[in-house]
Design goal:
Blueprint: E1 2-7, E2 11-17, E3 25-28, E4 34-38, H1 44-53, H2 55-70, H3 80-105, E5 112-115, E6 122-124, E7 130-133, H4 141-153, H5 162-171, H6 176-183
Parallel strand pairs: 2-4, 5-7
Antiparallel strand pairs: 1-2, 3-4, 6-7
Helix pairs in contact: 3-4, 4-5
């Protein structure tokens, strides 16, 4: 069952009673859409009480997403035409930047591919092939470099071990944690 509910504080909320839900939960999408999901054994009243108890969180999350979009920190509003422009820029810039950073730090990698990934900024395969999201182009250059260095570090350590993080930290002049925190302010979704 799906219905639209109008909350006096947070606005429209999509209520979803579904067997796939294990508990009452809320989600806010970058578009500002709010979804309240709950299992059939949970009453609608209990679900709405949960919604009421989380109003401040919903408002703060909607504001955070709106701020990111206003600052160009989300790929959520990108049109198909803009995506193709980003793809062209990414293909022209990112493989060359990977080569430069790898050479600078004495790291080896396989091939570089550009994808329209919205789940992660980049990845590295077991054989050292690097895949980068075209949405890296919405990031400032220093954060693009951080993502590339992160993936290049995976050519040495194929995990997120202490050794991996030590390598990333050395590649970023001791700035790994700061850069990781800053990257969280941006979204591919």
């Amino acid at each position: 069952m799906k219905e639209l509910w109008k909350d006096d504080v947070v606005g429209e909320v999509t209520l979803c009673c579904t067997r796939r839900s294990r508990r009452v939960s809320l989600s806010v999408k970058p578009s500002g859409e709010v979804r309240l999901s709950f299992p059939p054994y949970a009453s609608r009243k209990r679900a709405l009480e949960f919604l009421s108890s989380r109003r401040e969180w919903i408002i703060a999350t909607k504001e955070k997403f709106a701020q990111r979009v206003a600052e160009g920190k989300s790929a959520a509003q990108i049109t198909p035409e803009e995506r193709e422009t980003l793809r062209a820029k990414a293909k022209a810039i990112l493989p060359q930047r990977v080569a430069e950073l790898a050479s600078q730090h004495g790291l080896k990698y396989g091939k570089v591919s550009i994808r329209a990934s919205r789940t992660k900024w980049g990845s590295c395969s077991a054989v050292g092939n690097i895949s980068l999201s075209l949405y890296l182009m919405i990031l400032p250059e220093h954060l693009r470099d951080y993502v590339i260095l992160h993936e290049l570090a995976h050519t040495v350590h194929h995990n997120h071990s202490a050794q991996f993080h030590a390598l990333v930290n050395s590649l970023t002049n001791g700035q790994e944690k700061t850069l990781a925190r800053e990257l969280k302010e941006y979204s591919t979704r």
